[in-house]
From TrEMBL:
<keyword id="KW-0547">Nucleotide-binding</keyword>
<dbReference type="GO" id="GO:0005524">
    <property type="term" value="F:ATP binding"/>
</dbReference>
<keyword id="KW-0067">ATP-binding</keyword>
<dbReference type="InterPro" id="IPR031327">
    <property type="entry name" value="MCM"/>
</dbReference>
<dbReference type="GO" id="GO:0003697">
    <property type="term" value="F:single-stranded DNA binding"/>
</dbReference>
<dbReference type="GO" id="GO:0005634">
    <property type="term" value="C:nucleus"/>
</dbReference>
<dbReference type="InterPro" id="IPR027417">
    <property type="entry name" value="P-loop_NTPase"/>
</dbReference>
<dbReference type="GO" id="GO:0043138">
    <property type="term" value="F:3'-5' DNA helicase activity"/>
</dbReference>
<feature type="domain" description="MCM C-terminal AAA(+) ATPase">
    <location>
        <begin position="1"/>
        <end position="72"/>
    </location>
</feature>
<dbReference type="InterPro" id="IPR001208">
    <property type="entry name" value="MCM_dom"/>
</dbReference>
<dbReference type="GO" id="GO:0006270">
    <property type="term" value="P:DNA replication initiation"/>
</dbReference>
<dbReference type="GO" id="GO:0000727">
    <property type="term" value="P:double-strand break repair via break-induced replication"/>
</dbReference>
<dbReference type="Pfam" id="PF00493">
    <property type="entry name" value="MCM"/>
</dbReference>
<dbReference type="GO" id="GO:0017116">
    <property type="term" value="F:single-stranded DNA helicase activity"/>
</dbReference>
<protein>
    <recommendedName>
        <fullName>MCM C-terminal AAA(+) ATPase domain-containing protein</fullName>
    </recommendedName>
</protein>
<dbReference type="GO" id="GO:0042555">
    <property type="term" value="C:MCM complex"/>
</dbReference>
């Protein structure tokens, strides 16, 4: 990833090809909740060698709001129950693909991705 090239040898022919990839990763803090008293690196708990490979790192905190969390829980439970009754799945590939496309579009608009 760092050199943006890959060397391939097939049938006695060696060539170097350009390789460009985007990686979207997510992780949870080791304690399960983000601790404001710890550094970002302690909350992420990844080796520096791995962390340095990412160009952008966003920290998304879940602010503890019991009343809103309770409403979301009820809505999600009802949706899951309806999916189960109709033989569906709770994770829809099309919805996830749409969400990732929106993220990608937003990053493109900010000129963060090199295409």
């Amino acid at each position: 990833m760092e050199q943006q090239t890959i060397s391939i040898t097939k049938a006695g022919i060696t060539t170097i090809l350009n390789s460009r990839t985007s990686v979207l990763a997510a992780t949870n803090p080791p304690s399960g909740r983000y601790d404001d008293l710890k550094t970002a690196q302690d909350n992420i708990d990844l080796q520096t060698t791995i962390l340095s490979r990412f160009d952008l790192i966003f920290i998304v905190e879940d602010i503890n709001m019991f009343s809103q969390d309770k409403i979301l829980l009820v809505v999600r439970a009802e949706a899951t129950a309806q999916d189960t009754q109709h033989g569906g799945t709770t994770l829809h590939t099309a919805a996830m693909t749409n969400d990732l496309e929106l993220v990608k579009k937003g990053m493109n608009e900010l000129n963060w991705l090199d295409h």
